[in-house]
Amino acid sequence: MPLVLVVMAAGLVLAGYTFSVIWRVSLAERDLFGKSTLIPMVAQQSFEDGPVCADTFGSKSFWFERHGKRILVWKDKINCFQHCYGSALAAYELGEGPATWLFNANEYMDYIRDSNGIKENNILDRKKDLAHNIVGRKIGLSAKAHGLSGEAADAYMRTEILLSMDHGREVYLSYLDPRVRNLGSEASLGCPGLPERNLFDLAITGRHHYSRLQAKSRAGFRNLHTKHAEHYRNLRLRVKSVVGTSIQKGIHKSIHKLKQVQSI
Question: Theoretical Cys-Cys bridge with 176: which of 57, 90, 110, 261, CB 3.0 to 4.6 Å?
Fold first, then answer.
C-alpha cells in the first residue's frame, strides 16, 4: 500500500476517534451540566439565567438540577469537566502516552487559531487545561487498573471527576483561580514547546514594524529632500556670487581700458 494511503488512513482513524471523544464528552456535559460547550445541542440552558458572582469568578452562569441537587454552572466549570473526562477516556482506551499527545495537540491548535493573539489569560487558561488533562489521565488509568469496563468504567470516571471538581486540590474552576498562577511551566505539565506568540501576534508585530519602516522612510525622504534643497540653494548663491564677481571684474576692466583710450 502506498505511503500516502497509509498516512491518509491513519489520519481518518485519528479524526474519527477524536470526534468520538468530542461527541461523548458533549453528551456527558449535557447530562451533568445541562449544556455542552463543544457541540451545541437542543434544549440547552443559557448562561444568562444565573448570577454573576465570586463563586463563578465573575462569569455568567445558570442553575441546573443534577440528580435532585441544584448546582451552579458556568463556562469554565464545564471546560474543567471537558478536559478531565476527555483525557480520562483517551487514557483508558489508548494509554497515557497517546492521550497526552492527543490533548497536547489540542493545545497547539488553540494556540494557532487564537484570533486575538496570545495574552496572559490564554497562558493561564492553557496551564489550567494541562493540569486537568493530568487529573483526567490519572482517573482513566485508575479505571483501567481496577479492571472496569463498559458502563461501569464510564460511571467510575464521571464520578471521580465530579468528586475532584467538588473537593480536589488539583482542579481549577477558572483560570482566575489564584492557584493557577502557582502551576509549573507548560513543559512541566507535559506539553513542551508551546509558543507565547501565534501567527496573529506575528502579523500585528509585522504590521507595526512595517508602519515604523514607512514612517522612517518618509522622514528620511523629507530629510533628504531638505538636504538637497539646501545644497541647491547654496549652490545657486555660490554661482550667483561667482558670476556677479566675474561681471564686476569685467566691467572694471572695461572701464579701465576706456580710460586708457581716452587718455591717449
Answer: 57
| Higher-confidence position of 24 and 235 | 24
Q: Which three cell numbers stand for residue 114?
A: 487564537
In this structure, the answer to whether residues 68 and 114 fall within a common structural domain is yes
Count of structural domains within the chain: 2
Cell reading at 148: 472496569
Tell whether 193 and 242 lie within a shared domain: no
Same domain, 139 and 32: yes
Q: How far apart are CA 216 and CA 191, in angstroms?
A: 41
What is d(CA 58, CA 53) in angstroms, rounded to the nearest whole number? 5
Q: Which residues of 32-65 are buried (b: 16+ CB within 10 A; e: fewer)?
A: bbbbbbbeeeeeebebeebeeeeebbebebbebe
Residues 93 and 172 in one domain: yes
HSE-CB of 7 using CA atoms within 13 angstroms = 3
Query: Are 150 and 214 members of one domain?
Result: no
* Per-residue pLDDT at 142 exceeds 50: yes
Q: Identify any residues that bridge with 186 across adjacent strands, giving them in sequence order.
A: none
* Residue 70 DSSP one-character state: E
User: Quick check: 130 and 184 in contact, CB under 8 A?
Assistant: no
Q: What is the pLDDT of residues 174-202, one digit of tens each?
A: 999 999 999 999 999 999 887 776 665 55
State pLDDT tens for residues 30-78: 999 999 999 988 767 888 888 999 999 999 999 999 989 999 999 999 9
Indicate whether 105 and 205 sit together in one domain: no
Strand partners, 72: 63
Over residues 82-89, the mean pLDDT reads 98
pTM above threshold 0.85: no
